[in-house]
């Protein structure tokens, strides 16, 4: 932790700002990804269940 702070201090203000942006963006990206995966999973489940029902009704 201290090493990171020293590095950002040495290399200047710019890298410190980009480091903060990465830290702030990461939880949001994780949240968006989780939401996207859940929505995709629900959609796939819906399509699969419809497809299975269609197969069952076609065969009988």
From TrEMBL:
It comes from the Bacteria. This is Uncharacterized protein. It comes from Moorena producens (strain JHB).
């Amino acid at each position: 932790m201290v090493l990171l702070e020293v590095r950002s201090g040495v290399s200047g203000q710019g890298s410190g700002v980009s480091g903060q942006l990465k830290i702030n963006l990461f939880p949001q990206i994780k949240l968006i990804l989780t939401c996207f995966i859940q929505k995709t999973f629900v959609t796939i489940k819906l399509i699969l269940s419809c497809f299975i029902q269609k197969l069952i009704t076609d065969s009988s």
